[in-house]
Amino acid sequence: MADLVWTSMADLGRMIATKEVSPVEVVRAHLDRIATLDAGLRAFITVCADAALQAARAAEADLMAGKVAGPLHGVPWAPKDLYSTKGVRTTGGSKILADSVPARDATVVARLAGAGAIVLGKLNMHEFAYGPEGLNAHYGDARNPWDSSVHRVTGGSSSGSGAAVAAGLAPGSLGSDTGGSIRIPASLCGITGLKPTYGRVSRAGVLPLAWSMDHVGPMTRTARDSALMLGAIAGYDPADPTTSVLPVPDYTMALTGDVKGVRVGLLRAHFTDVAAPEVRSAVETAARQLEQAGAIVDEVNLTHVAHVGPASTAIVASEALAYHAAWMRVRAQDYQPDVRERLRMGAFISGAQYLRAQQLRALVRSEIDSALVKRDVLLAPATPIPAPALGERETTLGDGKSDVRAALIRLTRPFNYSGHPAGSAPCGFTAGGLPMGFQLVGRPFDEATVLRVIDAYQRLTDWHTRRPPVA
Amino acid sequence: MKRMAAAGGFAWTDAELEPIRPAVERLLDALDRLESLPLEDLEPTTQYRVL
Fold first, then answer.
1. Are A126 and A337 in contact (CB under 8 A)?
2. Distance in angstroms (rounded) separating the CA atoms of residues A407 and B31
3. What is the structure's pLDDT at B49?
4. What's residue B40's pLDDT?
5. What pLDDT is stored for residue A111 in this prediction?
6. Is A362 within 8 Å of B42 (Cβ atoms)?
7. What angle do CA A119, A121, A124 make, to 5 degrees?
């Protein structure tokens, strides 16, 4: 039964529905693995063993009574610890909310429960989601499972999600993504992650970092599992006024394995061309593989993206400080140092500068929309570098030296700023054995095409099936 | 910086603010450069409002 922890959510759901395996066995296998490995990985902040087993027994009873909630019936998963979970503490990875117990579930947690999925526990994260390394001074730094000799970061802020899914502690997770916090750990940990279009998935009950940049989305080992999770959580929610009333398609129906005629634009300047040589080569190879499978690949440049860094920093710093202002006045010492410093930056952005950054947003969005008029998706590295070692401060990119933190968010953040959907998937490994990931960017509300292309790529390659040495 | 923070209601000391001074100065310089972009006719946008 050890392989249950490496079985996809789609297959687990099918095996449970056909009574090939019990949800209790599935949940127990994952809890056993958490008990064995999590002391080293630090992926979980809270493990809900008793509640998960109770839910699994209820799912089994429903199944025996002929009641199946859907394709995720009895399938375990784990949310990043910024999703409200009724009766289970939701810390945001912070000391400030260490004992905060919500009275109700976040909309997406409730929707997954309605689909029959079972929460294993709450996952580690960069404190209050404000950092791309995935560091946490209060609950310990999650460890990247791909290097057992050097403590490498998982990427963040959804650090526990990246580590848990990569190491088989949970088959799927929900992360959140304000500058890349789903796609960065997906890339560094060798898993699949999807940041949907802004407004596609409700943020109600999810601790905010920056309201206009935050996105909620799945982190899994396959595109099919992301399609299943997205189908369960997407759609209008009166509790989140930014959600769209556009109908939610069955995303799994898009997974045909066929990319013939799909038009792919390889993002060059500011994206592929600035990546480390191994990453650049892996993404270019992926483009060729898609082309050989029938996709039409060309190259494209986005000029206004060069200004996204300072503009999005102004927005995130302003919105984050607005949310944290009351605590920053009286409990600043309770934040970990890097987060406290980033929050303080928000005090020095004027209203005019914030709005100028929002004006530029319209320009950047328009440029990306234009690039997608004649293309179905845009392709780029998700991160320009593989997982850095804990404490590594500087790296070298194609256009010079860079702070590691700035490098990690550089290629993902433009699409938080623009709101376009973007999915990340593994596309190779470095000579040292670290995963590398690409991202595919789609038209607004066309997550189906992004997932279709990733799924087709995963049928051509086996990068997503590899297991880390810690496992 | 201390006066500006105080205007926002934050009683942070010079010692607390000094570590972020270089980053704040770099950010404000970069934001100044946005003024040269053709943004005057663009309405500030925060999200995709399709429906």
1. no
2. 19
3. 62
4. 86
5. 98
6. yes
7. 130
Q: How far apart are CA A380 and CA A415, in angstroms?
A: 12
Q: Do A429 and A410 touch, CB atoms closer than 8 A?
A: no
| Packing angle of the helix pair A308-330, A337-345 (nearest 10 deg) | 110
**Separation CA A447–CA A457 (nearest Å):** 15
Whether residue A213 contacts residue A182, with contact meaning beta carbons closer than 8 Å, is answered with no
- Who contacts A401 (Cβ-Cβ below 8 Å, separation ≥6)? A394, A395
Q: What's the pLDDT score for residue B22?
A: 96
pLDDT, averaged across chain B:
89
Contact by Cβ (8 Å): A158, A175: yes
- Cα–Cα–Cα angle for A131, A144, A112, rounded to 5 degrees: 75
Query: From the list B4, B42, B43, which residue is nearest A348 (CB)?
Result: B4
Q: Which residue of B has its CA nearest to A359?
A: B44
Please report which residue ranges of A298-446 form alpha helices under DSSP H: 308-330, 337-345, 351-371, 404-410, 414-418
- State residue A430's pLDDT score: 98
Question: Rounded distance, CA A129 to CA A453, Å?
Answer: 29
Q: How far apart are CA A7 and CA A17, in angstroms?
A: 15
Q: What is the dihedral of CA A179, A183, A184, A185, to 10 degrees?
A: 130
Structure token pair of residue B17: 């603010």
Does residue A157 have a cis peptide bond before it, meaning omega lies within 30 degrees of 0? yes
> Whole-model pTM?
0.97
- Interatomic CA distance for residues A29 and A52, integer angstroms: 12
To the query of whether residue A157 is one of the catalytic residues in this protein, the response is yes
**Burial zone of A324 (CB within 10 Å; 0-12 exposed, 13-18 middle, 19+ buried):** buried
Closest to A82 measured CA to CA, from A4, A159, A179: A159
Q: Which residues of B touch A348 (CB under 8 A)?
A: 1, 4-5, 24, 27-28
Which residue in A199, A134, A284 sits closest to B45, CA to CA?
A199
Are the C-beta atoms of residues A312 and B34 closer than 8 Å to each other?
A: no
Q: How far is residue A464's CA from residue A54's CA, in Å, rounded to a whole number?
A: 31
Task: Give the three-state DSSP class for A162.
Answer: helix
Contact A250, A359 (CB under 8 A): no
Q: Which residue of B has its CA nearest to A332?
A: B12
Does B50 score more than 60 pLDDT? no
Residue A5 CA neighbour count, 13 Å, CB half:
20
Give ipTM to 2 decimals: 0.95
Contact list, A356 vs chain B (CB under 8 Å): 31, 34-35, 39
Q: What is the mean pLDDT of chain A?
A: 97
Q: Residue count of chain A, please give it.
A: 471
CA separation for the pair A425, A448 (Å, rounded): 15
For residues A97 and A87, the answer to whether their CB atoms sit within 8 Å is no
